[in-house]
Sequence to fold (129 residues):
Amino acid sequence: MVPGPVLVIEDDHDAREMLRAVLELNGHTVIVMADGVEGLELLETARPQAAVIDIGLPGPTGHEIARRIREHPGSRTMLLVALTGHGLPGDYQDSIAAGFDHHLVKPIDLDALIRILGPPLGATRPPAR
Fold:
């Protein structure tokens, strides 16, 4: 169960907006960023409880963003979900080593993402399907 906002960091506009729509339909408050550096900057103000991060970001990769989140004192327990086009065992291990809790391969299984995040805290109705 995610008690606060979900941060989505995805550089592809269509994918980012699709994730926003699906998560909002399931009752989550969502913050979207196209850039990992911007996402890191809002850790102090928004206090997201989970982050869904594309691995193949321009600039710092999703792995580097995850490492920085894990180094941030207020974000060490944040639920981190990697999104990537790479699904070999070594890719999964790299994501876990970077600090991700889950590794989803694109095109992602949206039901799996919803199960990972769980219902938002205080949800009074079942999530939309």
